[in-house]
Amino acid sequence: MKLGIIISQTNPETNWNALRLANFAIREGDEVKIFLVGEGVEYEASNSEKFNIQEQVAKFLKSEKAHILACGTCLKSRNQEDTNTCPMSSMKDLYALVQESDKILTF
């Protein structure tokens, strides 16, 4: 299955659970793409000992079936640079993710 996950918030527990689900799906053999939009591009800032988002992201990115994309406009409006864990993308990429995914989940 091709799973698309859209993260649009900074709630640490919610984002941690979204990433845990993404990692589970990868282990099940699925392809997973995460698109960060709006506040979602700030997802790493809410990392904590209790909700270790960076650990989940590191696990996720070890797979060739895992991809993270981030809204370039949302990054620019927050004066953020693109990184390996928050790479600049576009609405065209979000549209492609929606088109090619078998399921879309939003967090």
Task: Describe how the helices and strands are arranged.
Elements: E1 2-7, H1 12-27, E2 31-36, H2 53-60, E3 66-71, H3 72-77, E4 88-89, H4 91-100, E5 103-106
Parallel strand pairs: 1-2, 1-5, 2-3, 3-4
Can you walk through the features of this model?
The chain is α/β, with parallel strands linked by helices and 107 residues long. It has one domain (2-106): DsrEFH-like (Hypothetical Protein Ychn, Chain: A, 3-Layer(aba) Sandwich), CATH 3.40.1260. Helices cover 37% and strands 22% of the residues. It contains 4 helices and 5 strands, in the order E-H-E-H-E-H-E-H-E. A 5-stranded parallel beta sheet has the order 4-3-2-1-5, sandwiched between helices. Helix 2 links the parallel strand 2 and strand 3 (66-71). Helix 1 (12-27) packs parallel to helix 2 (53-60). The longest helix has 16 residues, at 12-27. The radius of gyration is 13 Å and the shape is globular. It starts with a strand and ends with a strand. The model has no long low-confidence stretch (mean pLDDT 97).
